[in-house]
Amino acid sequence: MFKLALVQALVGSALAGTVIWDGRFNEFSSSTDLNNWSWSNQVGPYQYYIHGSAAVTQYVNLSPSYKNPADTASNQGVKISIDKTAYWNGQNMRRTELIPQTSAGINQGRLYYHFSVKRTNTNAPRADLEHQVNFFESHFTELKYGLLSGASGSSDPTLKWCVSGQTKWSVTFDADVWHNVAYDIDFSANQVSFWHSTGSDPLVLTAGPFSVSTSSNGADWHLGVLRLPMNSDLQSSDVEDWYFSGVYVESGSLNTQIGSGVTPTTTRTTTTPVRTTTTSSTTTQRTTTGTTLSTTIRTTTTTSPTTTARTTTPSTTRSTAVATTTTSASGSPPANKWGQCGGIGWTGATTCVDGSTCQALNPYYSQCL
Ligand SMILES: *[C@@H]1O[C@H](CO)[C@@H](O)[C@H](O)[C@H]1NC(C)=O
Asked: Which SMART domains does this chain map to (predicted)?
């Protein structure tokens, strides 16, 4: 027992990197605190300007019941809503989005953008329309939901991870399931990967790395949702609610745990894939000229369907089974099929059970296949 607890403590602390921007709403008493921010008074962790014309509580609300309950590092989560008034700046896309307000270098080096997302059956997102979720303006890494613009069919119930509009991973977006995500972004090497888990499970490298231009001015990651229009969409009276929690940007080592102080189950106690990175922490101050209103409007409007090239077939969609590692902490017995068996920073099993062999998927992750 003692040994187990000690190893848990060591793993927990060894895995955590440095939080360079914290969007977890812990210091918010309500979503109306977002109104503290303005272009002339840029305070708090979020810029709040991409929303419809109604009061903030029509689009953004906070509550402990809106967070992933496994996330003990967050006091509350955020419910982000889009309704028939959620049109910003004369556009025909429904949008409610928050932008990190920070001088930290959240567009430099090797970083992890963390968040959890779920939906419920109340005000469920429409599966017949494309949604862009938690995206950068150049769309080099983002989630999407619903029927992609230009795709055939009438609806698509999957949540997808996309790189420059190409689907790299997808899963059915069931109600009441928390999806934990880390966008793994190497702004220096121009590479992105995707870490994912559900519920309280630790994050697992699920797709990537992919090479892409990781272009960001440090104020263009959008927490929230943009829904593309259909012909009658402007008049439709439906409302959608999206839930997010555990939002933060981390440098250094990836913390694969959901929240702090999570009690892992006994079969997977200390076997979280460990990874180290040689990226040094970034301390360079971003210039403030990138945050001007005119710049932001110009770049955000590139998401319009009329100006953005979209693929017409979802041909690259594939489902990926999430690997679970179940090797024990004592010694290194062979990893089970689908388990991790190597990679930079990996200290666990390096052999596989009979019937599978260890194959390197990338420098950071070898898997028993
Ligand atoms: C918003 O402003 C109020 C009043 O000054 C302050 O009490 C509150 O802490 C601020 N909220 C945040 C999130 O900084």
From this structure: fCBD (SM00236)
